[in-house]
Amino acid sequence: MDLGGVALRPGPPESESVLLARAEELSGLSLARVAERYGRAVPPDLRRAKGFVGSLLEHALGATASSRAAPDFEALGIELKSLPIGKDGTPCESTFVCTIDLVRIADVEWQASLVKRKLSRVLFVPVEGDRALSVGARRVGTPFVWSPSAEDEAALRFDWEELAGIIGRGDAEGITGHLGRHLQVRPKAKDASARRRGVDADGMPYAALPRGFYLRASFTGKLLLEHFPR
DNA sequence: GATTGATCATGT
DNA sequence: ACATGATCAATC
Questions:
Q1: pLDDT on residue A3
Q2: What is residue A230's predicted lDDT score, i.e. its pLDDT?
Q3: Could you give the number of structural domains in chain A?
Q4: Which residues, in sequence order, are bridge partners of residue A166?
Q5: Is any atom of strand B within 7 angstroms of residue A17's beta carbon?
Q6: pLDDT, tens digit, for every residue of A188-216?
Q7: Is the pLDDT of residue A179 over 90?
């Protein structure tokens, strides 16, 4: 059968080294080339396709859990994150980690937190993110797998405990993106009118703006430098 | 220019 | 509704 040169989505990688090898094989390619390989259309810009790069990489690498609360590579326990890189070589955006259960976060310890679990092993795939480049022209960079060092974990834990503590006290509405050295809390919603269940300082349920944890670009920039010193 | 708060699309 | 994938764009 003639598939017009369109490749099939690969199955899940059987090991971390296979996954990394697949990702390395993509490095240097433009997003147009990767999309073409899988017969996917490239949007003119990302305004209405913000998840395009991440979804394309998931597809090309054989990620298993789409839109489910599981690691992208379930069997390997590895999370995939694309990392948009600006002209200066540093990340130009923060990295979303997970949404926050405002009702229950007070009852969970750092060790059992979604943030710790999500970040236990991550495949970062840098991709050019300069808005002056068309989406198709942006190239995939050299991937790397990361697990938090003891220092990383202590620092993330410090931020998490501060932020989770504020939410746990029922003061989620008092949180701004200014808080947290490496990890921050920002809205994660359809729009500013979106609401989900929260608990206020008196323990009363209320309709809260949905929020999520994000890694600051300065933090992922530090990871990049540690893996690719220059 | 960097950052925060707002927003977009899609799948379960 | 809420999870996934994030970037946009107003504001500092």
A1: 62
A2: 80
A3: 1
A4: none
A5: no
A6: 999 999 999 999 999 999 999 999 999 99
A7: yes
- Cα separation, A148 vs A219, in Å, equals 11
Beta strand extents in chain A (DSSP E only)? 79-85, 95-99, 122-128, 144-146, 183-187, 196-199, 205-208, 211-215
Nucleotides of C under 7 A from a protein CB: 1-9
Give the domain extent around A57.
Answer: 2-227
Pairing of strands A183-187, A211-215: antiparallel
> Would the Cβ of A53 be found within 7 angstroms of any atom in strand C?
yes
Strand B proximal to A217 Cβ, under 7 A: yes
User: Quick one: average pLDDT of A64-75?
Assistant: 84
Check if the beta carbon of residue A159 is closer than 8 Å to that of residue A140. Answer: no
Can you give the pLDDT at residue A5? 76
- Please report where in the chains the tokens 């997970």 appear, as a residue: A98
What does pTM read for this prediction? Answer: 0.96
With H, G, I as helix, E, B as strand and everything else as coil, classify residue A155.
Answer: helix
Taking the C1' atom of every nucleotide in all shown strands and the CA of A80, the nearest one is C5
Question: What gap in Å lies between CA A156 and CA A148, rounded to an integer?
Answer: 9
Residue A64: the pLDDT is 84
Residue closest to sugar C1' of C9 by CA: A47
For residue A132, the domain's CATH number is 3.40.600.10
Retrieve residue A71's tokens: 């690691």
